Amino acid sequence: MKNMIESGALPVPLSDAVLEEEDRRKQDRHIAMLRLAKIKTDAGEGWGFIKNLSATGMMVEVHPNFELGDTVSALLTEDQELSGTVRWRKQALAGIEFSAPIDISKVLAKPSDAGQGRVSRLPRIEMKHPINLYQGSRLVHADICDISPAGICVATDFTFEIGKNLRLSVPELLDINGTVRWQSGNRVGIVFSQRLPLNDLMVWLSTFYRAARIGADELSVLNKESNADDLAVNSLPLQVIGHDDLGKEILIDTMDSATEALTQFKATSKFFYRVSIRNADNVELSIGTIVLSAFAEERAAAKSQVG
What DSSP assignment string belongs to 203-270? Predict the structure, then answer.
């Protein structure tokens, strides 16, 4: 029997149905990966991992406490963004369906911008949050402008010397050491001496966004009618409670300060379905209240050291 070449026979064209099926299979092909990305939602921003990818969707892993909402964008670099709709969520994992098929080869390509001679970097999380900077024994108050696992940009009127070592203190993230890399006007760039553990950073970001959603009335009460130091003292001792997915409660520990309670919250959140903090009257406190109290405790401690 002669083959097609020998016989001169032409190959039979594939039908449209066969071509469509081949195209569908290519789109449904999932590529396993572990790619760090900035996760952006209506509720806030944070980091996560893309675990697998296809032309029509992706599976991402974020901290269980991080709220996703209905739509999600994953930014792999400053100029590479994948957007879609959340189709399912199971603890840390979520399935995202793209609004339109993507070109996987472009996503997997090395992120660079040869035209400008620079390599694209992971986008930073923009935010505004108080932070204390210590240059030796000197305390400098500042506000966070943006943050990543490798560094931070803050705004302050204080003029730093480039190359100076600093200690940075934020409730829930505890103390971080860093070095001043640049300063432009009131903005200061600081590189961390060690990259922040992504899991710790995501817990802190989750706490930050929860605090940011405190109602205006509650925030007014906290800031005007109550002294945050008194609020923490009157609530003591604080109970850190772990909850499983069946509603069972476990007393993790009893703490004498909001700062200690937040530290325990961070350390144990990954092991429970949910973690809550209650005061001595067994009333669950909002994370925003605890964060404000912890920051007030830190400022009081700093003032006492200066004094």
Answer: HHHHHHHHHHT--HHHHHIIIIIS-HHHHHHHHPSEEEEEE-TTS-EEEEEEESSHHHHHHHHHHHGG
